[in-house]
Structures are given as C-alpha cells and as structure tokens.
Design brief:
single chain, mainly alpha, two-stranded antiparallel sheet, 23 helices, globular
Length: about 525
Amino acid sequence: MSEPGEAPVPYRFRAAGLLLGPLLFGAVLLTPRPADLSPEAQRVAAVAVLMGVWWVTEAIPIAAASLAPLIAFPLLNVMKAGDTAVCYGDSTIFLFAGGFFIAMAMQQWRLHERIALHIIRVTGTNPRRLVLGFMLASASISLWISNAATTMMMIPIALAVIQQFEKEHNAAWVAPFGTAVMLGIAYASSIGGVGTIVGTAPNVIFLGQMAKLFPEAPRITFTQWLFFGIPLVSIFVPLAWWIMARWMYRLPGGKGDDAEGGALIAERLRALGAPNRGEKIVASVFVLTALGWVFRQDIPLGSVTIPGWARVLPDPKFVDDGTVAIAGAMALFVLPVDIRKGRFALEWEWAKRIPWGILLLFGGGIAIAKGFDDTGLVDWVGDKLAFVKATHPIVMTFLICAAVIALTEFMSNTALTMLMIPVLAAASTRVFECHPLFVLLPAVLSASLGFMMPAGTPPNALVFGSGYVTIPQMMRAGFILNVIAAVLVTLLAYFVIVPVFQITIGEVPDWAR
C-alpha cells in the first residue's frame, strides 16, 4: 500500500490500469470455462485479476480497490454478502489495528523519539558508530511501528547531525557519511519490520490469507514469529552496517566519539525533558502488551514448558493475539494522564490518524483468499502449475526469495503479497510437494527486503527525497543487500523455520491436503 513518502505511480500507468482492469475482468468471465474449473472459481479469478491490476497500477486507491469483493462476490453468486463482510473483520486485522493504536500513542507522547535517541547515544557518536546507532534505533522502532513512520521520525534527527558535521568538518568522509546514514535508516527500518508480526503489512496479510487458505492449520503465534524474525533482524542489521560503514564508505571509527554529534544528541534529549506521565503509561502498556503476546500460549523450551496465561481461561482458544492488541489499545483510551483536563494516554485526535485504509486492504486480501479456497480455485491453480519441474529445495527457496525481492522493487509489497500467497500456497502442495510454510514464510519475509530502488519500499523513497542519496548509490548498495537477503532468508528457512514449526520439508501436512 502506498504510504507517505512512497514514489507515486505515473498518471498514464494509472489511467491504463483503470481501463485494463475491467477489460481483463470481462475477458476472464467470458472466456470459455475449462471443464475442471467451477463457475464460481472462474468468477473469483476474474475479481482477483481486476483487483490485481488496480493494486499494481494504483488506478484507484489500493484500499478502495480492496472493497471489490464486497460488491462482486454477492453479485456473482460466489459468497453471501455477510460472509464476505466477515473477512473485513478478521481477528488478524484487529491485531494490526491494536498495534497501530499503540504506535500512535508512542508518537503522541514522542516516546519513540526518546527511545531512538538513547540507542544512538549508547552506541557512540563517531561517524561509524553513529551509522550503527541510527540503524539499531530504526530497526528497534520498526519492530512495532510502520517502517515509513520510523523513517520519517529518524530523518530529521539524521539531517541535523549531518548538517552539523558539514559545518564543523571539511573532511572527505562527510558526504559518504550522509549517504551511509540515510541508506542505513531506510534499510534498517525495512529489516526491522520483518522481526514481529505487527512490524509490516505483508506479515499480517500472510497470516490472514493463511487462515483462509488452510483453515485447519495451526495459527502462527506472536512468539513463534519472534523465534525466526528476531534472529534475522539481529544478523542482517549489523551485516548491513558493516557493508556500508566499513566496506563501501570506509567511515572513520576508533574509540573516540565526535563531540559535535554527541552534543547534538544530548541537546535533543534535553529538549524532550524528563519522561512525563503520558510516556510512562504508554511504555507500561506497550511492555505489558508485548508480554501478553509472547506468553499467551505455552512456550516449550526443551524439557521445560513455560505455561501461557491463556490456560487460566475456560477455553484458551477463545482468545488470540488480536485480543491482546485491542486490550492494550483500550487501556490507552481508558488510562488518564490528566483527568481534570480530560487527557488520556491515547486521544482520538491521534488515534484517527492511523492508516485505516490498510485495514481495508487486509480485508480484501483475506476475502480473495477465502474465495480461492471455497471455490477450489487454489487447487485448480496448483494443478496447472504441475508442469514446473521440482528443483532441490534449497535452490527452490532461494529462487522464490530472489524473485519476490526483484518484484517488490517495482510494485507495492502489500499488493505483491496478496497476489502471490494463493499461488504459492497452491504451488507448495501441488508442485513442490512440501510444507506450505517452508515456501510461504521465506516469500513473505522477502517481500519487505527490497533495497535497490526508491519505489521498492517507503523508506527507500523517503531517504531518496532527502537529497543525500542518488539512485546509483542506492542501486549499488541495494543490489548487494538484495543478494544477501535472499541468502539469509534461505538459510533461515532451513536452520530456524524448519525446527520452529517442526517441518518435514518433503511432506505435505494433513491440514494442507
């Protein structure tokens, strides 16, 4: 979905998409139907093509295009209006909504800025360490807040430091330092987003579509995601820093800190003042919500199992991570900061700023996935992909990751995720004959790891607009990181995702048959 700062789609491309979408919709509906395809499945395919064209070209707002199933499915006798509408109220959507509310409360009280400044101060303020500090801060914040919002918050701080260095130093490293900082913020924001379920939109889209495509599959919990998301972030961010700060731009380091950079960070912290009551309440709710996510279900640690808090309920299956997210959000609306002035930890003036459109986007993706499953279209697509020769699993995973990363450089990663999940779900069981998670999770992670082009992710577009990064510079650094991302995610699939979900690669689980 287009977020603030994302490169706009050219007008002619949008106009072409506006006409092409309905034309292809009609063409799919009127094409003679294959004998093994049900009429309902053909209609779902037509709606999917319409939405896909409008998503990719952004002919109309992506959120508006996501409403198409609410109209088309009932009229085409695919799904009842009530059943279609339920998809837009899926619990996964409320998981993300709750995360948005908590993130907005952090922004209301500038808690995220305080956290970022402290991380930068701790890492040190010589040029090399400053790049690391900005990257660690960006990745840490992006675990919980959208990567676009994280980048927009970090850029003014970075610009102040860069401009101070330009005034105080006339060294050859100052210009490369500005480039490295800006690229580091963008790349770390994107990398941090894959670390948690709520970190970026493709993660939530995947969970919602997975539940509709494989209704009997065990739900992926917040804790399970942390087991593979955090290792990826922990390895990739330092590696990306080393490539830019020490290899590509060779910034000065050493044990000493830069006085100007340190003074500027200290000045920013002084301007924030002491933590106020609002910050303390939001920080407490944030920590409790995160703990609620992590410890909701039992956590097996070898021979020891940490019992989840949901055990105390009559039926633990009645709650999920969406319940926890909304509980945290409600607490912010209820807890007062100044009861006499009617101020609360989260006020509606701030809450209404959350990107409501992306919640509609999730609903549209879930509705399409349910249509694929209910009409048998997902099985039909899988059968038609049978001509693809199976390769070695490690080669297959790497090729999928590389292809997704390449595609996301030129189209919205949210649109790409919604279009590719049903196809890859079918391919995993029908073509590759393996566990769906072994195919889908690497693909979803890769959708957020495009580093070469300004249009690849909102953070890329935002730092490109700063004036300190050129397209050749972004392409050079981004190509290296794209290759590393494909390799890291492939290795993660084998050595982390497989044991976390107890996957037997060459076997299709019963719930996916």
